[in-house]
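This entry is set out below.
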Amino acid sequence: MNKTRVPFDLSGLTGRQEIFRLSGAAKSDAAVERWLNGEPAQLRALARYWFSHLRSCGADVLELMHDGGPTACVGDAAFAQVNAFRSHVNVGFFHGVTLDDPAGLLEGSGKRMRHVKLIPGEVIDENALKKLITAAYVDIKARLDDDMI
């Protein structure tokens, strides 16, 4: 007898989405500092600038390294990350698919993650990116509040 498994999406029934959780986040992480001050200097400076905006979202923001990039969390709930590649920096949002993005900065096609690609020397709508960062922080706080219900 051949049994077929049918995926069951509980989040679809409850309206809740899973929270991406990471253990080990701290107020200040030496590994994050080393990464932000590493090479190539131009890309890391750009990443450092935007990670400072993630850090400044609230007193409850913690940090750690995840998948090779500095990641910002509230408690153990990740909300955003920076990472440097060969010629650009990404500011990634773990629940980016749900963020309002009137400026059209977000890229990606994953189930939840979206990112903003930053290329040195190219102009970016900084206010729009700052609003996305704030929205991601507010979103994770709301998800955490909902998770407590």
